[in-house]
């Protein structure tokens, strides 16, 4: 199974690395990092880069797409090369997936019209602009489309996918190998749990996934 992971300037690192650590451990998985041009691609924090081994033009028939989100999403929404590639690649995928605001890119490509989709909480309101139906669930499956909420939810998404593709026993083994048993120190991991003033402050700062 070839898993194509899209990279673009300003993506969020864990959106990619989290799913990669899970999906790459499935039997028969081949993960390909791809971008408009091959070479290093910087994350939103700039101090980290991942390498796109192949340009989009060389990744034509993946079995799975993984599209991350991040502050760079806004620029890619107008990148016809990426959107055209998403549409073309999606035509032959078994699974088309996203993490965080990556669902906006799938929606902008016309792939989520009329479908339920998750995204980072600050990006959810943008999904209807592209015909998608926003969901506050952490992971959403709608046909072959699977979308995750913000950043860390990509790990949950990947484990769900591993279970559906390789079976529960394999997914459980992977979860134990990476020792995914989160015990967060603060109960503010969702908008519903966080204090309203914290939510409001993040909406108005550069920490937002998309500029307001």
From TrEMBL:
The keyword Metal-binding does not apply. Its EC number is 4.2.1.103. This is Isonitrile hydratase. PANTHER family: ARAC-FAMILY TRANSCRIPTIONAL REGULATOR, DJ-1_PFPI DOMAIN-CONTAINING PROTEIN. Pfam families: DJ-1_PfpI. Residues 2-161 form the DJ-1/PfpI domain. One of its GO terms (molecular function) is cyclohexyl-isocyanide hydratase activity. The gene is inhA. Keywords: Lyase. GO terms for biological process: regulation of DNA-templated transcription. CDD domains: GATase1_PfpI_2. It comes from the Bacteria. Coiled coil: none annotated.
């Amino acid at each position: 199974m070839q898993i194509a992971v899209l990279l673009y300037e300003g993506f969020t690192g864990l959106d990619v690395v989290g799913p990669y650590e899970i999906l790459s451990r499935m039997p028969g998985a081949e993960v390909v990092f791809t971008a408009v041009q091959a070479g290093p691609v910087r994350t939103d924090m700039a101090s980290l880069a991942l390498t796109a081994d192949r340009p989009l033009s060389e990744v034509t028939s993946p079995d799975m797409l993984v599209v991350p989100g991040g502050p760079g999403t806004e620029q890619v929404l107008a990148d016809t090369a990426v959107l055209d590639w998403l549409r073309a690649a999606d035509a032959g995928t078994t699974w088309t997936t996203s993490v965080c605001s990556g669902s906006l890119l799938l929606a902008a490509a016309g792939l989520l019209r009329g479908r339920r989709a998750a995204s980072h909480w600050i990006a959810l309101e943008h999904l209807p602009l592209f015909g998608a139906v926003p969901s506050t669930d952490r992971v959403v499956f709608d046909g072959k489309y699977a979308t995750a909420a913000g950043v860390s939810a990509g790990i949950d998404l990947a484990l769900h996918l591993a279970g559906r593709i390789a079976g529960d026993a394999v997914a459980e083994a992977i979860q134990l190998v990476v020792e995914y048993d989160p015990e967060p120190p603060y109960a503010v991991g969702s908008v519903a749990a966080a204090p309203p003033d914290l939510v409001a402050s993040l909406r108005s700062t550069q920490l937002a996934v998309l500029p307001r």
